[in-house]
Design brief:
The protein is mainly alpha-helical and 311 residues long. It has a domain of 188 residues: Up-down Bundle (f41 fragment of flagellin, N-terminal domain), CATH 1.20.1330. Helices cover 67% and strands 5% of the residues. A hairpin with a 2-residue loop joins β1 and β2.
Length: 311
């Protein structure tokens, strides 16, 4: 005779209850952690893929910091060049005004006092425009590097003997020694010799003013046009590198976004699915508990009935 409370049936009910309990615990852990990887659901292959994507995303975050630092360096250089450019234009205005016979030698001296002040300020800006201690407008400085290396991603080569330029994710900014925005580098002469040692009643002749105006090369109208042309060349180099860095930053942002989405599809919890699974497992737990209790009650009742019959 087989009773409802048979041992095999109770074992089956207990196994079903334990399975529902594990399902409920697993769903709760996934909901609490936000990750599909739990002690009941390891998914080794998926975990390896997700961790690989996480490492790539963190590498891109470091590369973005490098790119932002490089952009800051280039913007600092550009701002310094802009200030020097404005001062060169003002020096040209002064020198052209000083070559006019409508002003006296004394008034011309006053103009060149301002001229020399701007000349000294260009020297100061060129020497003090640095980024983290690196001169970026004075290639004549012994501290100025020959080139700068910007890393914008993970290395693309594992060859220890490979040169930096062989790595596609390394951008090399060479020619730093050629960027010399000092008055000497721009070809601007000083008026200090004309001003020093003059008596209060002395002035500067128009011939001296015209001498300062003459260019070093014949293709330029004045020495200031030559200086502006040099500054434009420097600015083009920095501007081109800055545009490239901006594009590298945009690419890193897009790539990081897509990799994060891919990792999320693999490793992140589907909350709607897990809530549904947790609810279903709780119903099964409650049903299993109730059936086990009923089974125990039926077994007890059967034993009582058999005892009564035997008596």
């Amino acid at each position: 005779m087989v009773f409802i409370g048979d041992k095999s049936m109770q074992q089956s009910l207990q196994r079903s209850l334990e399975k529902a309990t594990r399902e409920n615990a697993d769903a709760m852990e996934k909901l609490a952690s936000g990750s599909v990887f739990t002690k009941f659901d390891n998914r080794p292959s998926d975990r390896k893929l997700a961790e690989g994507l996480s490492f790539k995303i963190r590498g891109l975050a470091a590369a973005k910091r490098n790119i932002n630092d490089a952009v800051s360096l280039l913007q600092t250089a550009d701002s310094g060049i802009q200030q020097i450019n404005d001062m060169v234009l003002r020096m040209k205005e002064i020198n052209i005004a000083a070559t006019n016979t409508t002003i006296s030698d004394q008034e011309r001296k006053f103009l060149f006092v301002e001229y020399q002040a701007l000349h000294n300020e260009i020297q100061r800006v060129a020497e003090t425009t640095t980024f983290n201690g690196v001169p970026i407008l004075n290639g004549d400085s012994p501290d100025a590097p020959q080139e700068m290396i910007f890393r914008v991603g993970d290395p693309t080569t594992t060859d220890e003997m490979a040169a930096p330029e062989d790595d596609l994710n390394t951008i090399i900014f060479s020619g730093m020694k050629d960027v010399v925005a000092t008055p000497f580098g721009l070809g601007l002469s000083s008026a200090q010799d004309f001003i020093e040692g003059l008596d209060p009643t002395d002035g500067i002749s128009i011939e001296d003013a015209q001498e300062l105006l003459l260019p070093l090369e014949d293709q330029h109208a004045t020495v200031y046009d030559e200086a502006i042309d040099k500054l434009a060349s420097m600015r083009a180099v920095y501007g081109g590198m800055q545009n490239r860095m901006q594009r590298a930053l945009e690419f890193s942002d897009v790539l990081s976004e897509n990799l994060s989405a891919a990792r999320s599809n693999i490793a992140d919890t589907d909350y709607a699915s897990e809530v549904s699974r947790m609810t279903a497992s709780r119903i099964l737990m409650q049903a299993g508990t109730a059936v086990l209790a009923q089974s125990g009650f039926a077994s007890s009742l059967s034993l009582q009935l058999l005892s009564g019959l035997s008596s």
